[in-house]
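Handout, page 2. Input:
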Amino acid sequence: MNTISACFFLMTKPMAYKYISFSIAITFISFIVGMVINAILKKTSLYNKLSDLNFIKNDKWNKWVGVGIVRWIVLNTPFKFLNQKLKATERTGLRKLRDEMTSSEIDHLIGFIFVAIFALLKFYKSEWLFGITIMMVNAVMNLYPSLLQQQNKRKIDRVLKYFGDQTAR
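Output:
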């Protein structure tokens, strides 16, 4: 048994409930923080730079880190009802869909950074298990959705390029 799993095994139920419930709560708050900060960023030149972020450029790496699992969860659970703007209906809507994906991706990245600050504070206070719990929930709820949006944007860019869309990046 490795050190991290041993630490989680030794957690008491009240401690586990506290850590997990705080992590989920702060992550949901981060969604609102991400949307507010993103709305402000859209009015700056920095937003255009952020819109072309691509942390993992290779689809094999995306599969290896588990982005496909998150994709399945989003498509086959109630999470599919969260952002109804992210639906493709026809080719002419792909540019708009890509812009919506970019906005969602940046929302999640801002949220990830927001929650990571809380985890860093827990690490600073030597509350390692609490910090790890926060980061695990944060990765699942903010980082992976952002990586999924980046993967989807790459697919849209390939389609737009194939059909000769002049605005494709």
